[in-house]
Amino acid sequence: MGLYRPPVGASGPSREVPFRERSVNGTEQPANTAGVPAFDCTRSHFVFTESRAKAAAWPFFTGSRAIGRRRDADLAAHEALRRLRSGPAMAAERLTLGAYTGTWLAAGRWRSTTRAFYQRHLRRILPALGHLRVRDVRRSTVEAFLSDLARTGASRSTVSGAHRTLRALLASAVRDGILEANPATAMRVPGPGSRAEAAWSAEELVAFLDAAGKSRWYPLLRFLATTGCRISESAGLTWDRMDLEARTATIDRALVWHNGSHVWSEPKTRRGRRRVPLDAETAAVLRAWKADQAAERLAHGAGWGKGWADHDLVFTTPTGAPIDPPGVRKVMRRVARMAGIDPGRPCSPHVLRHTVATLALTSGKPSTLVADALGHDPRVLLGTYAHAVEQAGVADVMAAVIDGGPRAGRDPVVGRVT
Fold first, then answer.
1. 234, 328 Cβ separation under 8 angstroms
2. Which of 4, 194, 298, 329 is the most exposed place for a label (fewest CB within 10 A)?
3. 35 pLDDT tier (thresholds 50, 70, 90)
4. Dihedral, 181, 383, 377, 199 alpha carbons, nearest 10
């Protein structure tokens, strides 16, 4: 039911009258039988005249265009409704999650590894939820799916990855105006474990680097452990991006390992483009490594690098090929065993990145400074490692500053109130 509003400029009565939609053949009548429907596109609702007699003499309008008398108005109204029901709005109303996913994947501009991550988890999501209309997906829908996934024996990382994929997919639907809010946000989902929990302690890191000291991989492992760079950023680093005199490394691209091969890529995020400072010891280690790498190249002759020799990569395998995450993880596990680190502890290049972030924040370094060095968003950084900072405690940080500063060595009892 609706209310009558006479067309602008009409001389008919101004009283509002209830109505309902009538068909073109006239089988449905308005609630007030004196009314005759016409569709006003400027307000997207039916309008009626008070009197059929007067209405027959009035022109009807669709927007600002005169469309004639009653039957013309009926035809125009129903044509407008037909277009509305078959137009973009109704198409979005009927759109399923499976159909929208195809559009989302086609339009996405991600790194190859990110796309592969989404596609891997969509193979679990679409069989369960693909038939649903996008607008029918609720928070309870997502929670029920993730709970079922966990009950079937999926690992915590798989459940977390499925949630991240759904959250990204539904966020796109919000941006496209299909959903008003993302039902996959603000949810407590079992994840693969805290990144701060994955980080090593300072003692473990020192033992690891001591064990790696005699290895040809020590320059790479020290670089990762002191800068927190991603493995793809380190793999794509070339000597022309290294300024060992100024002790900086410029990160402006990455060499990503995808489906068993290397692919050049932009840094993972906009903040990934940065200049990373190096400590004096790391700069000296890299300077010595440059000479050792040149000796390796000379020893292998023309076969060194397998097509990568012209890229002048900083970190390479013994045969001159680019480093890859599986190979580096294997080296790290071997060194960790030599260092006596618990075999159950996480051990990967990304663990070193988490360790840098955790130790820097818990030592009291400003979050903005740590985020800049890691190519991270400061807000995301604090959200990720807040628990570790809380565990360290403000008192512990301040005690380290005070007791390790100019007052170090003084009797801590002096000045105590008794």
1. no
2. 298
3. very low
4. -130
